[in-house]
């Protein structure tokens, strides 16, 4: 997903729990962020795609997580998180989750 965004000419700031997984993106122009918060502060849209609810919670609400950023406009979570976490996330960001995203 990240490589396609860069290929489309979009600026991209990345963070990963394992920096080595992002290394290939740097040669194509991606910028490294030291934390999810730093990545969010450099973005109009934050995209997350992690393995489970715990990882999503860590990225959003953990130490230096997205919710600690000062400039979050949109968060799109591509993780398989179920219905509870998007509702909690929406509450934390002071927004509502799109009803189309809540259908099963």
Outline the secondary-structure elements.
Elements: H1 2-7, E1 13-14, H2 23-26, E2 31-32, H3 36-41, E3 45-48, H4 53-61, E4 74-77, H5 84-93, H6 99-102
Instruction: State the helicity in percent bands.
Output: 25-40%
The CATH topology comes to Rossmann fold
Query: Structural class per helix/strand content?
Result: alpha/beta
- Order of strands, main sheet, comes to 1-2
In the CATH scheme, the class would be Alpha Beta
Strand content: 5-15%
Task: For this entry, give a set of tags.
104 residues, alpha/beta, Rossmann fold, two-stranded parallel sheet, 6 helices
Task: Describe, in short, the structure shown.
The protein has helices spanning 2-7, 23-26, 36-41, 53-61, 84-93, 99-102, and strands at 13-14, 31-32, 45-48, 74-77.
Q: What does this protein look like?
A:
The model has no long low-confidence stretch (mean pLDDT 83). Strands 1-2 form a two-stranded parallel sheet. A two-stranded parallel sheet has the order 3-4. By secondary structure, it is an alpha/beta fold. It has one domain (11-89): NAD(P)-binding Rossmann-like Domain (Rossmann fold, 3-Layer(aba) Sandwich). It starts with a helix and ends with a helix. It has 6 helices and 4 strands, in the order αβαβαβαβαα. The protein is globular and about 35 Å long. The protein has helices spanning 2-7, 23-26, 36-41, 53-61, 84-93, 99-102; strands at 13-14, 31-32, 45-48, 74-77. Helix 4 links the parallel strand 3 (45-48) and strand 4 (74-77).
């Amino acid at each position: 997903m990240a490589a396609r965004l860069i290929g489309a000419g979009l600026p991209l700031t990345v963070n990963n729990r394992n920096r080595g997984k992002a290394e290939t993106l740097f040669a194509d122009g991606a910028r490294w962020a030291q934390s999810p918060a730093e990545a969010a502060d450099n973005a109009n849209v934050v995209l997350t795609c992690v393995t489970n609810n715990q990882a999503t919670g860590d990225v959003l609400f953990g130490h230096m997580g997205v919710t600690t950023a000062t400039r979050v406009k949109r968060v799109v979570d591509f993780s398989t998180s179920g219905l509870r976490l998007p509702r909690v996330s929406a509450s934390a960001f002071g927004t509502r989750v799109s009803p189309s995203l809540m259908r099963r």
